[in-house]
Design brief:
single chain, alpha+beta, At1g16640 B3 domain, 2 domains, nine-stranded mixed sheet
């Protein structure tokens, strides 16, 4: 059994997306969701992956609670549209709150992955809240694991038993009834109220009792009224002029008077279409920020435009961007990896290592678990508007690796 310690070590949303997007022999047949609260902020972040899952012929079955009006009409509608079957569970007695959180992936008679913990199907539950979830991987060809799975699946099935008055199978008509009866919240109105109230709570007087930490979730295009992040565009090539990368100047201050430094992104030329980086022990570690690769800040201009900076605590700041890549392993096998993440991290001025850096993550353990120190990753821009890089693995000891590192270099442009 493993633990998802969110948001410090990993985020449940990223793990669910990875499992939903598996293909071929690795894919699952069923995805079961049993949660107390559902919001569009959570469902929308899984929606692209769920569509991939269903596009592979797999099915989704979900159960949601509506206690305390914590589920929104937008979230319930979106999950209903994505589910092959959906149920609502509610006990009218106020002394009993429906509060379970269970996610199950099943490949019939072969394997299952079960998540039991505290995460609802909300943005906070999947990404930014402090949550704890256990991960149980089961081999359904083994009798002991199969019995354990049947017990857990039996719990799920018990909550979609419509012979009990607390469970109702969801239909479009019943959704409207829930809205008319005031059982669901309005997520759009709540977002406006939160924005008006401010991003953090403040004590009315005296010394502040607690500090703040900032954790982010992947952005969803239709959730914000701000200008959208720059669309992935055509990379520069010898036949097209290099893009103009303007100077990005950001001044933000918080308590402690931390100021984001002025940042200039280098212009990419037609002859420099990418870069490579030799993996360090840290990059290849499975225990220290597993899957995260530190990239020198000099290569910032090769990445899509980052979000505005936010403060992360300890007077550090970061911006982020999500995009799609193709990963090519050492055997030339390629696969598309959606929603990889890059962070532009700026440490506090008094940090022992005050240099800004890029932190890149595939969010795909089947890839990052194969990394070894001294291997090289080559990041090459593409002509596909939906794919930002082709990232190629170059193993230590190969002829290409020897040529690239013969002068002791650890990174360079292509």
């Amino acid at each position: 059994m493993n633990i998802v310690n969110q948001p410090r070590r990993s985020k449940l949303g990223d793990i669910l997306k990875e499992l939903l997007e598996k293909t071929g022999e690795d894919k699952f047949d069923k995805f079961y969701v049993l949660v107390a609260y559902v919001k569009k902020s959570g469902v929308s972040r899984l929606k692209p992956s769920i569509l991939i899952f269903k596009g592979n012929g797999s099915q989704v079955k979900s159960i949601a609670g509506i206690d305390q009006k914590q589920s929104s009409k937008q979230g319930i509608k979106m999950l209903f549209e994505l589910s092959d079957e959906m149920y609502i569970y509610h006990n009218r007695r106020l002394s009993s709150t429906f509060h379970p959180k269970l996610y199950i992936f099943e490949k019939a008679d072969q394997k299952a992955v079960v998540f039991i913990g505290s995460s609802n199907l909300t943005c906070g539950g999947l990404y930014t809240n402090y949550e704890m979830n256990s991960i149980l991987e089961l081999d359904l060809t083994q009798e002991g694991d199969r019995e354990k799975f049947n017990e857990i699946k039996g719990v799920f099935d018990s909550y979609c038993d419509t012979s009990l008055g607390c469970c109702k199978k969801l239909t479009e008509e019943f959704i409207q009834t829930l809205i008319d009866r005031g059982k669901l919240s309005d997520e759009d109105a709540n977002s406006i109220a939160r924005a008006a109230a401010g991003a953090s709570e403040e004590d009315s007087e005296g010394e502040l009792l607690f500090g703040t930490e900032n954790f982010t979730a992947p952005t969803v295009e239709d959730e914000t009224e701000e200008e959208p992040t720059q669309t992935i565009g055509t990379p520069p090539s010898a036949s097209t002029p290099p893009p103009t990368v303007s100077q990005q100047v950001i001044q933000q201050t918080t308590r402690g008077q931390t100021t984001i430094p002025n940042i200039t992104q280098p212009t990419i030329t037609g002859t420099n279409l990418g870069f490579w980086k030799k993996l360090s022990n840290y990059d290849a570690s499975q225990t220290s920020s597993p899957g995260q690769i530190q990239i020198p800040i000099r290569f910032l201009g090769y990445f899509p435009q980052f979000s505005p900076f936010t403060h992360t605590g300890a007077n550090a700041s970061q911006a982020e961007v999500y995009f799609n890549v193709i990963y090519e392993d050492e055997n030339g096998q390629r696969r598309t990896v959606n929603n990889v993440r890059a962070i532009h991290y700026v440490p506090a001025a008094n940090h022992p290592r005050p240099n800004a850096e890029i932190r890149f993550t595939f969010h795909n353990r089947s890839i990052s678990n194969t990394f070894n120190a001294r291997d090289i990753l080559e990041f090459r821009r593409t002509n596909n508007p939906n794919i930002w890089f082709i990232i190629k693995m170059i193993r230590d000891g190969s002829h290409t690796h020897t040529n690239l590192t013969q002068n002791g270099q650890k990174f360079n442009t292509i």
